[in-house]
């Protein structure tokens, strides 16, 4: 495993998605992941930046969920409604490169909820929202 591959995985990106995100060919990403060729510092920095944005957005979304409080269903159960993006376009509209990166932020948010919280993934709508990606500090090509 390479540092590049570790960061790609932490960002929730497949090799194909990483190639699209970074504007390079799939075989280039494969060689960076395997360590056959070292990834350029800029490529690693882009993933590090994306991962920081995932962590920040996840923490912010968890705080938003806690402020809103759990939704009490008809059966009396209390659940935190976690909005899941419908598709890549839904996530892209919130500043993410794709749905996978947004889902990584949702994972951070769910992990940050109180231990006794019961999260439930629901389709994103105006009532649930999804995490917004912060502004990239390192620009993709």
TrEMBL record:
Residues 121-141 are annotated as: Disordered. GO terms for molecular function: DNA binding. It holds the Pfam family HTH_31. Transmembrane segments: none annotated. Gene3D superfamilies: lambda repressor-like DNA-binding domains (1.10.260.40). This is Helix-turn-helix domain-containing protein. It comes from Bradyrhizobium quebecense.
